[in-house]
Amino acid sequence: MSGWVCIAGLGPGSDALVTPEVTTALAQATDVVGYIPYVARVAERAGLTLHPSDNRVEIDRSRHALEMAAAGRKVVVVSSGDPGVFAMAAAVFEAVENGPASWRALDIRVLPGITAMLAAAARAGAPLGHDFCAINLSDNLKPWAVIERRLRLAAEADFAMAFYNPRSKSRPDGFVRTLEILNAACADARPIIFARAVSTPEEHIRVVPLPDATADMADMRTMVIVGSSQTRIIDTGATPIVYTPRSAPA
Fold first, then answer.
1. What's the burial of 90, exposed, middle or buried (CB within 10 Å: 0-12/13-18/19+)?
2. Whole-angstrom Cα distance, residue 42 to residue 38?
3. What is the pLDDT of residues 70-79, one digit of tens each?
4. What pLDDT does 107 receive?
5. Rounded to whole angstroms, how far apart are CA atoms 177 and 35?
6. 73: which of 35, 68, 157, 193 fits an S-S bond (Cβ 3.0–4.6 Å)?
7. What is the per-residue pLDDT for 42?
8. Using CA atoms, how far apart are residues 69 and 229, in angstroms rounded to an integer?
9. What DSSP assignment string belongs to 119-158?
10. Can you tell me the distance from the alpha carbon of 190 to that of 30, in angstroms, rounded to the nearest whole number?
């Protein structure tokens, strides 16, 4: 039996946003590995074993998946959104690089998914229509000083910015500091989008001027997008359309 590993993105939440490629891989899998709530999104069936685990054991999870594939199992490692954006693809390849040489010969594929960043941007309009960057505001795997430096430089470069993991119960102050940095660096009242639980029944989109944003508007289910100085708002009488023009002034 020839084993393989597919590192798959389940999209932002709705089953309608899971790609056909990922659906096919899940139908062929003997095992699914991933963080508990992501594995819970996969339907149980005969011949499929689910392996949910905690969020902070990514390398152990990756090694387990690779060991099963080496034994001939067909393994899907699931992430939300896209597996290559702050998710499991990098963890699996870290395990491959530091593991047995035989793992390098395994059939390993990355199956892209719709990221929370792109789903949130689509709901709001086109705030990422020009140059942008994505920053993970969690300091679990990098020093907070690195995050602050990147925030300042991104603001100086006038990127639109998308923030993952903005605020959790264990990190309540990081997003407070993020807003302080942005308000100090940005002289205008550019829009900031709080897109919570996009594509699920709990979806909520809020658009406010940056000076009016407060830390309690975000949690771990919120994608935050900050416009550039060129980002525009079209008033529709309901949720406004936010877009960044395709060109930048000389």
1. middle
2. 7
3. 999 999 999 9
4. 97
5. 29
6. 68
7. 97
8. 48
9. HHHHHHEETTSSSEEEEE---SSS-HHHHHHHHHHHHHTT
10. 48
Report the alpha-carbon distance of residue 33 to residue 86 in Å, rounded. Answer: 17
Question: Which pLDDT tens digit goes with each residue over 140-154?
Answer: 999 999 999 999 999
Please give the Cα distance from 230 to 158 (Å, whole number).
9
**Residue 2 exposure: Cα atoms within 13 Å on the Cβ side:** 4
**Tokens standing for 156?**
């100086």
- Give yes or no for a contact between 31 and 75, defined as CB atoms under 8 angstroms apart: yes
Radius of gyration of the chain (CA): 20
pLDDT-based confidence at residue 1 (cuts at 50, 70, 90): low
What mean pLDDT is reported for the chain? 95
- Encoding tokens for residue 15? 């089953």
Helix (H, G, I), strand (E, B) or coil at 174: helix
Q: Which two tokens mark 53?
A: 């685990």
Pairing label, strands 222-226, 160-164 = antiparallel
Task: Please give the Cα distance from 201 to 65 (Å, whole number).
Answer: 32
Q: What is the pLDDT of residues 38-63, one digit of tens each?
A: 999 999 999 999 999 998 899 999 99
The total number of residues shown for the chain amounts to 250
> Which tokens hold the place of 144?
């907070």
Distance CA 126, CA 245 (A): 9
Residue 88's φ and ψ, nearest 5 degrees, are -80, -20
